[in-house]
Design goal:
- The protein is of the alpha/beta class.
- The protein contains 17 helices and 18 strands.
- The strands form five sheets. Strands 1, 2, 3, 4, 5, 10 and 13 form a seven-stranded mixed beta sheet that branches.
- It starts with a helix and ends in a 9-residue tail after the last strand.
- A hairpin with a 6-residue loop joins strand 6 and strand 7.
- It has three domains: 207 residues, Alpha-Beta Complex (2-enoyl-CoA Hydratase, Chain A, domain 1), CATH 3.90.226; 148 residues, no CATH class; 73 residues, OB fold (Dihydrolipoamide Acetyltransferase, E2P).
Length: 478
């Protein structure tokens, strides 16, 4: 009896301890959700494309649960709108537009590209018919009827596809674009033919059909913070994407990408062909710097591509000035430079395949093609015109690059005729040879000579000394 009593007392005590531990153990809760917020307050123009791209990539990198467009815009350019819609489609998480006063025209299109639309009290959405700006952007002018029909049809089909994908009513969206569209639901005329549909927040959330479904808006919410609390819960981590002045600057830089490549190639080529280092090199490097700066600010690439471009340039320089005739270094460097130029303008998103597909390569390859043609034409013209101008003398003068002037260089070349030296690299037919304490770029008359061959200067071709092999006095020494 005593043993049983002691067992019951021990069991009661043990149970009490377990209950106390359970009571003191914290309850595990899910971590706060991550939210990226992009305020849209300006017209839909090219700088906003970069901002949206940065927002989407930030959301993807941080594995955010929610992307919110905080929108108040009058509209903007159709081309920029289409780019933004394509970028938003890359985000696989929940995307929401909060109409924080107005989403007119292009703003309505972008809202449809998100999965859900919420609206603030007394906000409006719609009036999305395409218009044509007068020359200089000073106002709006009438669009020719044929052009209006074609533009409206193409745009309407594009927006309907996004509406269908995200579960919005495509007829509602079409009525916002096409004034010939009559919208009737449940026997009620929502939009008469000849008018463009614009909805208030109350009208947009009104339910129709069986089962009942909101016309466009998922509901009216008092504020952005209230919307985030509603969708992500209190305490969500919020990242707000703010525009920078550099993104506006990058718009103009990227519009001239092909020109920077032409200037860059021409500058580097002239620098290689002239002695010393001077203005052409500075201009060429600066042009390539602008090219990579624009792609970086636009969110198209990181710093890895400019770094690899510099590595490629170093390999080419080593081939030309340190290890002439090796070929492999120059080819590897040139290939690396071409690849980085293309990849710097390819829009790749986190989680997507690292290798771009053909549509992604279309714009970079177009720019590279224009640059190749432009560079060839520019170099041809410069090779014919530049040496005959006073500018050429400045480029290779003592003051510009720390080397001899054109006139003194001609005298030096004349004094070298007949000098003998030794090839310090294989001459294929170009290479380097040492004459006393001076190493010169030389070229043979077509034959290939091994390293160590004794040579004599017999003339000059541009900046290179033309050499011939010296026959040894004793043939057996060969």
């Amino acid at each position: 009896m005593t043993a049983r009593l002691l067992f019951l007392i021990w069991l009661s005590t043990f149970s009490a301890v377990l209950c106390a531990d359970a009571a003191n153990t914290p309850v595990l809760t899910s971590s706060p959700k991550r939210v990226v917020v992009l305020p849209i307050r300006d017209d839909i123009m090219p700088p906003l494309v970069y901002l949206v791209r940065r927002a989407v990539k930030t959301a993807m990198d941080s594995k955010s649960d929610l992307l919110v467009l905080d929108m108040n815009t009058r509209g903007g350019r159709v081309d920029s709108t289409e780019q933004i819609m394509e970028i938003l489609a890359q985000f696989s998480g929940e995307s929401v537009t909060y109409v924080n006063k107005a989403a007119y025209s292009a703003g309505a299109f972008i809202a449809v590209a998100t999965r859900r639309i919420y609206m603030a009290p007394e906000s409006v959405i719609g009036a999305a018919a395409p218009i044509m700006l007068a020359p200089g952007g000073t106002g709006v002018e009438a669009m020719p009827e044929t052009l209006e029909i074609k533009t409206t049809s193409a745009l309407s089909a594009r927006i309907r596809s996004y509406a269908q994908k995200n579960g919005h009513n495509p007829d509602v969206v079409e009525a916002m674009i096409d004034k010939q569209k009559e919208l009737v639901i449940d026997g009620k005329t929502i939009n008469e033919k000849g008018r463009i549909l614009t909805l208030t927040n109350v009208e947009a959330e009104r339910e129709y059909g069986t089962p009942p479904k909101p016309l466009l808006s998922a509901g009216t919410v008092e504020s952005l913070d209230a919307l985030i609390d509603k969708l992500a819960g209190p305490g969500a981590y919020k990242t707000v994407i703010q525009p920078t002045g550099a993104e506006k600057l990058a718009t103009w830089i990227n519009a001239l990408n092909w020109l920077w490549l032409i200037i860059g190639v021409a500058g580097i080529y002239i620098e290689i062909k002239t002695p010393g280092f001077g203005l052409p090199g500075v201009v060429g490097i600066s042009a390539f710097g602008l090219y990579f700066f624009g792609s970086y600010v636009a969110g198209l690439s990181g710093l890895e591509w400019p770094a690899l471009f510099v590595l490629g340039l170093v390999l080419v320089i080593l081939e030309l000035f340190v290890f002439p005739g090796t070929v492999l270094l120059g080819l590897a460097g040139a290939l690396l430079m071409i690849v980085t130029i293309v990849m710097a303008m390819v829009d790749i998103y986190p989680g997507n395949p690292a290798l771009p597909d053909l549509p992604q390569l279309k714009l970079p390859l177009r720019n590279l093609g224009l640059a190749a043609i432009g560079s060839a034409a520019t170099l041809f013209i410069l090779s014919r015109v530049l040496p005959k101008t006073s500018l050429y003398g400045v480029l290779v003068s003592q003051s510009a690059s720390g080397v001899r002037s054109v006139e003194s260089e001609a005298r030096v070349q004349a004094s070298r005729i007949g000098r003998e030296g030794v090839a310090v690299s294989v001459l294929r037919p170009g290479g380097k040879a040492m004459f006393g304490d001076e190493v010169l770029d030389v070229v043979t008359q077509g034959e290939m000579l091994p390293k160590g061959t004794r040579v004599r200067i017999i003339g000059h071709s541009a900046k290179e000394a033309v050499v011939e092999p010296i026959e040894p006095a004793n043939p057996a020494a060969r």
